[in-house]
Amino acid sequence: MEGFKASAVYQIYTKSFQDSNGDGLGDIRGVISRLDYIKEQGADYIWLTPFFKSPLNDNGYDVSDYLSVDPVFGTMEDVEELIAQAEARGIGCMFDMVFNHTSTEHAWFRKALAGDPEYMDYYIFRDGEPDVPPTNWESKFGGSAWEYVPHLKKWYLHLFDVTQADLNWDNPKVREELKNVIRFWKNKGVKGFRFDVVNLISKPEAFENDYAGDGRRFYTDGPHVHEYLQELTRDTGIASMVTVGEMSSTSLENCIRYSRPEDKELTMCFNFHHLKVDYKDGDKWKLKEPDLGELKRLFTEWQEGMEKAGGWNAVFWCNHDQPRAVSRFGDDRKYWKESAKTLAIVAHMFRGTPYVYQGEELGMTNPRYSDISQYRDVESINYYKILQERGASKEEALAVLGERSRDNGRTPMQWKAGPNAGFTDGEPWIGIPENHSYINVEEENKDEDSILSCYKKLIRLRKEYRVIAEGDIGFIYRDHPQVLAYRRRTEEEELIVLANMTGREAALAPAFDAGGWELLTASWKEAPAQAEGEIRMLRPFESQVWRKSR
Ligand code: GLC
């Protein structure tokens, strides 16, 4: 069995996981102190969000030196100890490579700003008049994607914050520099890499205005992206490691190529289409209820499509850029436990490698902040203004942030009830939801029926039953308005997953024979209702995993 198929990855948002020195920010020593917790869950890898030297304008996704550790997170010795301590527990470290852009504080960009032509060619500079950007492309964090540098009389491209300048991957020197970063961390014993927005690295030859969108169609899955990834993987010898690319607004066809073993690009891909089913008109900043039909359609397309072509998915609901899944697709009040477990079951039984984002395994919720001063994220702060410019009142803008802000997923890990949830002895950098009084590791560890126990069990099952890691997949009840269901199969075993994704009972005509099935796990504690005549009833957010030998 290929290792990554039976593996699970635990994502740590370093800044919010565990503080060890009382400054209110999570750090590497904090992570070390919690390795046993991760081990208990059965995770094979930890992915740590960036802790490299950074002005932290985008919480570390603005790297100013890839080869050193930012003092707020610790030292190089701490990171070496983390790698060793993780390895001693059978956990591999995956580090986060932010290679689409650097911080404008990076030495390369500073030299570029000083007018050094060699380093200007590391970035994407274009001539232009001070008030006419080279194209009308928008930054993903709001505003123009270009910034004018008066003394150079040129604009530079930044698809993200103005302090995150896009690198010029068409320059072979840039590609060499980045390979050296990989080699450096590989030599330290890192077992895998996550590549940040890596499908944006190859920009088009000609830059043109986008009259139908924000520009993304010109640089997403760009002209040389596959070639550059193959080169990176080949020249750094990481083909046998676990690598995952974050793919922004990508396509199935491209993700097949990124992750198909024969292309030797990456092990797997994150895509985000399923996390846009609650965007009205495709706009993140316009709210609508999640469209379950669309969610089912997308999962079917991606799960079946990747299988057919031999690609591999990274499966996830949550990360540090997303609101909490239980608040978004579940019901974080009435069916908190059942809906959190159902989301977990659906993802962990899919074909692909599951990623658990810190706190997801506890059913952590959005914090429901009531004031803009509680937000920290640059994107949220920008959009609070932009939404008001577009006509929203303060209250309306806050209501949108309450659902969409990335800070929803960045509140500190809830270790226990009591002061600061056990995250820090100091003042946490961002507020902690009240519900840490009952949503916390200490409580949930004591309870066999907790969400945490469910996650542990799901990871255990993946290692126990080959069908979960390796089986093929086909969706059933395809048109059911409430139930997401699929079948997994190997030659020896078969699995059926039924999940009522709504807060209402759902009726299901049996689509498979009754005999010989064993219930592996379920979201409701109480035993499943018996099929009544021809109809099986699923309670609100009830999900079940059935298995039998073939
Ligand atoms: C990715 C990261 C996100 C960051 C952005 C720019 O989407 O996950 O946190 O802001 O890239 O690096």
UniProtKB/TrEMBL annotation:
Quote the EC number: 3.2.1.93
Entries under InterPro entries matching the protein: GH, GH13_cat_dom, Glyco_hydro_b, O16G_dom_2, Trehalose_TreC
Q: Which CDD domains match?
A: AmyAc_SI_OligoGlu_DGase
SMART domains to which the protein is assigned, alphabetical: Aamy
Q: Which SUPFAM superfamilies match?
A: (Trans)glycosidases, Glycosyl hydrolase domain
Top EC category: hydrolase
Q: What is this protein called?
A: Alpha,alpha-phosphotrehalase
The opening ranks of the lineage are: Bacteria, Bacillati, Bacillota, Clostridia, Lachnospirales
Q: Which gene encodes it?
A: treC
